Structure formats: C-alpha cells, structure tokens
Structure prediction request, 445 residues.
Amino acid sequence: MRGRLALLLLGSALLCLDPAAAGARSGSRRTPVVDAIERNAPATVNITTTLEIRRRANPFFRADPFFDDFFGRFLDPRPRPRSNLGSGVIIDDDGHVLTNAHVLAASSEIRVTLADGREFEGELIGTDPATDLAVLRILSDESLPAARLGSSEDLMIGETVIAIGNPFGLHHSVTTGVLSATNRSIRTRGREFLGFLQTDASINPGNSGGPLLNLDGEVIGINTAILERSEGIGFAIPIDRAMRIVDDLIRHGEVFPVWLGIRVQELNPALRRAFDVDSPHGVLVSHVFSDAPAEQAGVRVGDVMAEMNGNPLESVRGYFQLLATLTEGDTAKLVTERDGKRRAFKLRGAAFPEHRTGELARVLLGFSVGAASPGGGLVLEDVAARGPAGRIGLRNGDVLLKVDREIIEDAATFHRAVARLRGRSSTLLLVRRGRTGYHVTLQLS
Prediction:
C-alpha cells in the first residue's frame, strides 16, 4: 500500500514538472487579448502636461496701489502650475506620439512616461482641434517601442476591442468590450464631431489619446473621452483618418481643409423661394472654381447641397465641419437639388493648389495684392466695390500688413494666410492707409 502511494505521489510530481503540462495550463490563459496587450502596452504612454496659471493679486480694482497691497497680503500672485493627464501611443521609430488635441491644450510643458518607467520631455508637433488629434515627439535618442497600426476600413460590428490608457492617473489600465457602431456623430462642446467608432469598453478621462486595439494586436482607433458623463459608452477616432491627419501635422504642423472648389452660402427664405427648394436642409452653391473637383463632377452654381456623406447639411458651418473630416484622397458624396430634382455626385478631395491662392483671395476677400510697400506689407489692387473688402471701405493703394496672426511680408506669407481662411466666416486684417494703421473685420463671401 505504501509503495502504491509513493508511486502516485511521484507521478503527480513528474506531471507538475512536465513542461508540456504547464504549457497547456498557461495556454488556456494566454488569450488574444493578452497577446494584444503585451504587444502594444510598451508603446502606450502617459502624458502629463503643465500649464502655469498666474493669479492677479487684486482681482477687483485695477491699478489701485492701496487694493494691490491689501490683496497682495492674502492672495499669492505667483504662477500656479496646473497639470493635465492623458494617454498617447508611439506610432513610429522617430518617437512620434499620437494623442488627442484636448490633452495638450495650452500646455507649457509636456512629459511622456513609458510603461517601463522611462520619462522624457515631449515636443508639440501640431494639433488639429477639428478632429481632436495632436502629434508630439519624444525628445530622446534612445530606442523606443512603436505600436502596430491596423486599418479601420474593414471593422466588424461586435468584434472584441481593447482600450489601453491611464484613466484617473492609473497607469496602463486595460478595458475590453465590443465595437458597437461606426461613423457615429457626437454633439458636444458646442459643436459636432463626426465619424467616430463607438464601443462599450470603458473610456474615461486619462484614457484620451490611448489606442483602441483589435484582437490581432493592431491599433484601429484613438480613444477620446469626448462625451462627458457617459456610462458604458466609449468613442474612438478611426485610425485610417487619424493617420492622414498625422501626415499633415508632421509635414506642416497643421491640417488644411481639402479642396473641393466650392463656395457656399446660407439659404434664407427668399433664396428658398427663388430656387424652389422644398427641403428644410441645404446650403446654396455660390461659386464653383474652374477645373476643380466640384466642376469636374458636374456641380453648378445655384445647386442646393442637401447632404454630404449621408449627413444633412443644416448650415454653412455644418458644411465646413463635415469638410474638416475629409483629408486628401477621401471621397465626398454630395446630394444636391437642381430644378426640383435630386442629383448625386462623388468628389475626390484634393490638396489645395497653391497657385490658385490669388483666385481664392479675389473670391473670399474681394481684392488682389501687388508690389511690396516700402514700409512693409503688400499693396491692395483690384478691390471690388461690391466685394467683402470694398463694402467696408478698403480701396486700391491700401497696404495689407496682417491677416489674423500672419504678418504679410511677401507673396508667400499672403498665400499661406489665404489658404488658412478656407472654412472661415470672417477674418481680422491689419491695413495701413497713409501713415495710419487700423484693424478691420472682414466677412468672407
């Protein structure tokens, strides 16, 4: 009896030492979720931003020495640092990190911490508030891990997804769920965000900017905690769109709207009657640039654009918000009304052709620019009396010194400033007439 018991115990010990048996047990625990996390957690980073807030010693009475001294005794006027936490993902071997724009908003210092504890300074490369995306670069010559990027084109509703991030400062937290929907529109912060992925994986403040993964361990989206007080609902920006934005941010530091070659205006009741428009939606095509994607597709002046990519067009602002979701090469599917009939068009978004900046300036601003002025700036020419500039009193010979924040030094700076005006309803100009300089607000046509 004792011999049999000894053999049984020996067999059990050998089984425990058997690598195959141990592997079988661990194999049941090593799921695709575990593999996906191990592959991408090293490339998921914690981002800490710092903004110095300077508090005034005298918050009630300006430039009053008595009250300045009184409040200075009780309120500390020294700068107070305020920190913000977020997540990001390293996307290439150069140390570029993709995150949300609101994570880096107004930051004066950026620190990036990796999963292995290494900490580096981050340099802001560019932000795009329209899509809530930003790119920074880790300032280091050390080897850095990069995530494996997938595609958001072939996503399947119901497939398992994994979110990694730093919610509430809890580093490298993991949540799982399923892909609930694609192409979701979200109204928040006074505007509308379009084309989001929806998941029931928990995404909270601090998760923003972290990766959303599929079971193949590929990044398919960038998480964003954009909807406040949401429970059981998370959103992510599709990775295909995000990477097109990244390309512009790395090359230019900003993203320019794609070029369709259309100008639109609001449809007021008089225009609705004149064009016999029945739909409550729509914006009027007021200008079509020659040899542009819109003209090539057959869009005409006087068409009423009712939809873009399945989204009703409620206003000019809504049109430009939809346009901001497109990047070069994307398709814009337009539905228009013309002579009481609906028509469908497909336009491929193009990069803005810089050689057409002069034409765009004449349409948007109502003037051209000529020679440089001895005192700086460019001289206005061909000011249209009924154009935006002419209506507020600008005239030939005035000197353009500044467009918004861009100082106009030569044709190149003017072209750059005009290209940024696409999608804007107004702009601030600094103009000189004689020896006097003055600011004017120009409503763009």
The chain has eleven helices and 24 strands. The mean pLDDT is 83. Residues 356-443 form a domain with the Pdz3 Domain fold (CATH 2.30.42.10). Residues 364 and 445 are 5 Å apart (CA to CA).
